[in-house]
Amino acid sequence: MGYVFTPSDDAVRSSNIARFMDANGIRDYKELIERASKDIEWYWDAVSNDLNIEWFREYSTDKILDVSDGIEWARWFVDGKCNIAYNCLEKHIKDGKGSKPAIVWENEQGSRRIVTYSELYSMSCRIANALNAIVEKGDVVCIYMPMVPEAIASMLACSMIGAVHSVVFSGFSARALADRLNDARAKVLITADGYYRRGKQVELKKSADEALRMNSTVERVIVHEYSNMQFEESKKDVMMSSILKHESSHAECVEMDAEDRLFILYTSGTTGRPKGTVHVHGGFMVFAAQQAAYLVDMKDSDLLFWPADIGWITGQTWSVYGSLILNCTSLIYDGALDYPLPDRVLRMVDEYNVTILGMAPTALRAIMRALDDETISRYRLDTLRIIACTGEVIHEDEWFWYFKRIGKARCPVINLSGGTEVGGAILSVLPIMPIKPCTVGLQVPGFDADVVDDECRPVRGGKGYLVIRKPWPAMTRGILNDPARYIEVYWSRFKGVWFHGDYASIDEDGLWYLHGRVDDVIKVAGHRFSSTDIEAVLAMHEAVAESAVIGLPDEVKGERIVAYVVLKPSYRKMHDLLRDELRRHVENTVGKIARPDSIYFVDDLPKTRSGKVMRRLVRAKALGMQVGDVSSIENIASLAMLDNPY
């Protein structure tokens, strides 16, 4: 399909990336990508300067990158001293911008707050001073909280004093929390009494206490009294209300080496045991600013609403660190996006005059199913200038719905893709680019990315493996406590080349597309199919809400294709008629070899907290195997549905 969106000349001229190119004498974006890929040290130094990152001591411009221990263990901004929290808060206050809102907050019950940069600084300092009495530089503080300003302040407090924060999604089970506490050897846990989801109480402190019974490293627990729920106090517990009342509102930001640890963030574990990725002050600071400034074009006049939990890299890169470094404002929401009504996101966009909206494809699908055009037409949505998406492959019908219904065909869809271990996006559309549906644009400047075959040779005109040939500043510094696994997962397929685990392709115009994970490939009689490609075909049918496609063993073909399909409500009574129709639909669209052997209908599919369908659980259920670790599943009841499809 051809281009469906072209940015205006004004949008291009006023963009942050155009300013960067003009300042560096670069004529067009592809020239920038080529230069940044060849000379990565020049590029990341130029980014730090362009975005006014402040260093306590400048890094060596003669040796910005050090690969003396191998590309796998690259070090960035050698000899530089900094603190990311300083660039998020104190720097702006010194510039006279303390009264600007840093966070606009709302929760499911309708409570609201505006937290200025000065107020966020004061809150962060008070928590930092309390932590200073407990932890030392390099100690790990685990944050297990709902999406409240105090959670973000806790992250910044850790960064101020050189503690390492590890945010664990508040929806995770006690077992999952305990596993992460133990792996990170956390010394302090910051949590809350509880919160509400879909109007129901979630007793978070109860889960935290259960996790602590499986842990021996945590010495102190700080409890935010958020929802007025009863909980059992212990000698370990300190009330955050006491900290915010009695501690000093000023704290010095500790001078950190650029390679000092900033945070540990665990992957969602869709393909096995969660991995603790390690990010550092200097590299992540410059990278997060770059991602927010250039990819979604954040300016200090913008209000970003990207409802991703800070337990995921999207929340940390864009909503927290990226936004704050650029002196912008983020709208933070604590609650279910479709509660009490499915149009809540649209209401918030209009009410708060959101300019940049980010959504996961899973969330888009849920809203698509629930909202008709008449309901959407009640909302202006006219303050939006950028709409973004990430988290998984987006299908064409979802892309067009987002572009036309939410963006009104005037906002670019900034589709981007990367990962927790990357620190953000490898590939992205930018606001200055003409766009085709579903493309993830081009490689982000500073990434020497490619699509290759089994011999690591470039592939054009077909699918291959997404790889990165050179390091970047936010590359994880290994997997916590498991360097051998780090090398095995990312560096063993091709020596000296990062193997990301995604299938990708590049079209005739140089635009990139993703086709799912390498480990989600089905081989039928020698033919290879990506689960996501067949799911995309199923999604084209008007009756299909979503699906999970897996391969199961077959004596003749090697594997056979099986699809688990969620139908839109108005089609559920027609499931007997639709089964064969959907099989023919795939056959007519892809070919007879791709026709599913079986189609089962279910009311829900197991998903991670970040919205990714967990095909490994679907496959395990289909094979009658143990499902293994389910700590990252959002909707545990969906597993029972797989046992009784209709």
TrEMBL record:
<keyword id="KW-0436">Ligase</keyword>
<dbReference type="InterPro" id="IPR025110">
    <property type="entry name" value="AMP-bd_C"/>
</dbReference>
<dbReference type="Pfam" id="PF16177">
    <property type="entry name" value="ACAS_N"/>
</dbReference>
<dbReference type="InterPro" id="IPR000873">
    <property type="entry name" value="AMP-dep_synth/lig_dom"/>
</dbReference>
<keyword id="KW-0547">Nucleotide-binding</keyword>
<dbReference type="InterPro" id="IPR045851">
    <property type="entry name" value="AMP-bd_C_sf"/>
</dbReference>
<feature type="domain" description="AMP-binding enzyme C-terminal">
    <location>
        <begin position="534"/>
        <end position="612"/>
    </location>
</feature>
<comment type="similarity">
    <text>Belongs to the ATP-dependent AMP-binding enzyme family.</text>
</comment>
<feature type="domain" description="AMP-dependent synthetase/ligase">
    <location>
        <begin position="97"/>
        <end position="478"/>
    </location>
</feature>
<dbReference type="InterPro" id="IPR042099">
    <property type="entry name" value="ANL_N_sf"/>
</dbReference>
<dbReference type="GO" id="GO:0003987">
    <property type="term" value="F:acetate-CoA ligase activity"/>
</dbReference>
<dbReference type="Pfam" id="PF13193">
    <property type="entry name" value="AMP-binding_C"/>
</dbReference>
<dbReference type="InterPro" id="IPR020845">
    <property type="entry name" value="AMP-binding_CS"/>
</dbReference>
<feature type="domain" description="Acetyl-coenzyme A synthetase N-terminal">
    <location>
        <begin position="29"/>
        <end position="88"/>
    </location>
</feature>
<dbReference type="InterPro" id="IPR032387">
    <property type="entry name" value="ACAS_N"/>
</dbReference>
<dbReference type="GO" id="GO:0006085">
    <property type="term" value="P:acetyl-CoA biosynthetic process"/>
</dbReference>
<dbReference type="GO" id="GO:0005524">
    <property type="term" value="F:ATP binding"/>
</dbReference>
<protein>
    <recommendedName>
        <fullName>acetate--CoA ligase</fullName>
        <ecNumber>6.2.1.1</ecNumber>
    </recommendedName>
</protein>
<keyword id="KW-0067">ATP-binding</keyword>
<dbReference type="Pfam" id="PF00501">
    <property type="entry name" value="AMP-binding"/>
</dbReference>
